[in-house]
């Protein structure tokens, strides 16, 4: 697990690092990185490679800007789609505002309460489980006169075969496109990671890099051309992505 703290009070930084180290020892969490930053730009400059193992612990107020952490969360989420974001602050009245920033935060912890360690323990234990959600299995697909087993992580999207309603085209990460038996409706049932973004497209949501709600498009990793996104599917797709990014800790 890699933990990155944004906190402009040195004493609070030290205290959070102490608590996190205690939790890691008690819960047997391996910390590959534990770094603290006092300025937003500092953390932006040292933003790590995107990873489901990344955890960002953000104070809301930095340098008298009460929404600095929220603004940063939006920046992080664009760069690191499946990372865990946890807010910690004395401004718990800002909880409703977090939804406006679509940060998909795992928790919102008031640091002036006496249960900070308890809440952080629950949050970090939940974050520790997230990589298991990304241990992607294989899917068995019918091709030609036989069957083939394909890693779901190698699947980008399916599109219909206009010449045959019982077949679809499968786009793979190695730029290979193969014909498989089954309509998009049938194929969608084969994995919870498959999402019908449009009547002409079934995507692997683990490959989503960006959602353009203005042009109604989804950009997928490894594909130069955006996939169509139905206007009615915007909210559903965001919710599905939030399910992947977060784990229920209640």
From TrEMBL:
Segments forming domain HTH LytTR-type: 139-243
| Keyword presence, Amino-acid biosynthesis | no
Q: Which SMART domains match?
A: LytTR (SM00850)
Top-rank taxon = Bacteria
Quote the SUPFAM superfamilies the UniProt record gives: CheY-like
By its UniProt entry, which CDD domains does this protein fall under? REC_LytTR_AgrA-like (cd17533)
Q: Which UniProt keywords apply?
A: Activator, Cytoplasm, Two-component regulatory system
Its name, as the record gives it, is Response regulator transcription factor
Q: Which organism is it from?
A: Limosilactobacillus panis
């Amino acid at each position: 697990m890699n933990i990155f703290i944004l906190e402009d009070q040195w004493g609070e930084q030290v205290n959070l690092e102490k608590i996190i180290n205690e939790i890691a020892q008690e819960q047997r969490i391996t910390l590959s990185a534990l770094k603290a930053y006092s300025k937003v730009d500092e953390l932006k400059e040292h933003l790590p490679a995107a990873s489901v193992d990344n955890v960002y612990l953000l104070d809301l107020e930095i340098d008298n800007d009460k929404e600095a952490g929220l603004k940063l969360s939006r920046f992080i989420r664009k760069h690191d789609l499946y990372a865990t974001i946890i807010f910690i602050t004395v401004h718990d009245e800002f909880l409703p505002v977090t939804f406006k920033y679509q940060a998909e935060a795992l928790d919102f912890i008031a640091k002036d309460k006496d249960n900070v360690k308890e809440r952080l323990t629950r949050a970090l234990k939940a974050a520790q489980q997230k990589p298991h959600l990304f241990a992607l299995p294989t899917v068995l697909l019918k091709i030609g006169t036989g069957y083939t087993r394909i890693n779901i992580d190698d699947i980008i999207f399916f599109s219909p075969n206009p010449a045959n309603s019982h077949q679809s085209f499968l786009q793979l990460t190695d730029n290979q496109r193969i014909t498989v038996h089954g309509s998009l409706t049938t194929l969608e049932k084969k994995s919870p990671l498959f999402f019908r973004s449009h009547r002409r497209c079934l995507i692997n949501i683990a490959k989503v890099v960006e959602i353009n709600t203005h042009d109604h498009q989804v950009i997928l990793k490894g594909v130069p051309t955006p996939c169509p996104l139905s206007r009615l599917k915007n909210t559903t797709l965001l919710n599905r992505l939030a399910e992947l990014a977060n784990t229920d800790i209640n």
